[in-house]
Amino acid sequence: MKYVSLTDTVFVFVHGAWHSSGQWAATQRALAGLGAASVAVDMPGHGFDAPLPTGYLLPGQPGLMTEKSQLATLTMDDCAEAVLSVLHQVRHHRTVVLVAHSAGGGPASLAAERAPELVDRIVYLSAFVPGGRPRFFDYLGSAENATALGQNLNLGDPEALGAVRINPLSSDPAYLDELRETHYHDTPLDRFDRWRSALTPDLPLAIPTTPVTLTAARWGRIPRTFLRCAEDRALAPAAQDLMITEADWAFPGNPFTVHTLPGSHSPFAARPGELAAALAS
């Protein structure tokens, strides 16, 4: 595999739903070995400082199905501004590569639209691309995504909660099996238990539901790559292909470069070295 020069490249990583900057650590270590700097963003409502439902860590998890999320007032703008803040900090590097995973594609795209001069390339790792349809839910609910798993993971009424809530600390074996099969089916079981314990339960509802509008003069001028996950069970390969196709139709002057990775929705957990090599190539 041929690598580009990485000595003055910085990768800015944007995580997906329920994750945090920590999900990228192994990939960042591998990239450092290849000469690249990187920084990972914690979007508002995620990471170690994320506010949790009051009963989440208590026996029996009281109120988990009904308690309104403390993240309900967070907006897509809030999340995009968190990405923009990091992009401004690293612009002194010659090459800035913005990498988004899954639901992080919305805030990353909006940040790139607002400040395309801060991004030299944007990479979507099985991530939402609002080039053809403006909301992540538009693709999650598409016919192309009908084979995706995870429909039984969401708790309560997202509209009432103000969040898409899951329960990574569930004691139900069937629930945990679906969580693993959806996001981490190729991650060893002992490592899956560590990964799920690091997840937070609430995704602000604004992230998958807020429309993101892109323009050819701004987002559309940035070179872009899509890294497909061939065995993805959270965002079906057919839905990934739909996003690529519709974005290229909408912005034909600058089409995606597309590469396919083996495995699940979460290569940063299952094969971070391979992910780093793909990013460096």
From TrEMBL:
Keyword Hydrolase: yes
Organism: Streptomyces mutabilis
MF terms (GO), sorted A to Z: hydrolase activity
One Pfam family, short name: Abhydrolase_6
Keyword Metal-binding listed: no
Gene3D superfamilies in the cross-refs: alpha/beta hydrolase
Name of the molecule in the record: Alpha/beta hydrolase
PANTHER family reported in the protein's UniProt record: AB HYDROLASE-1 DOMAIN-CONTAINING PROTEIN-RELATED, ESTERASE_LIPASE_THIOESTERASE DOMAIN-CONTAINING PROTEIN
SUPFAM superfamilies: alpha/beta-Hydrolases
This protein's UniProt keywords: Hydrolase
Span of domain AB hydrolase-1: 11-278
Lineage: superkingdom: Bacteria
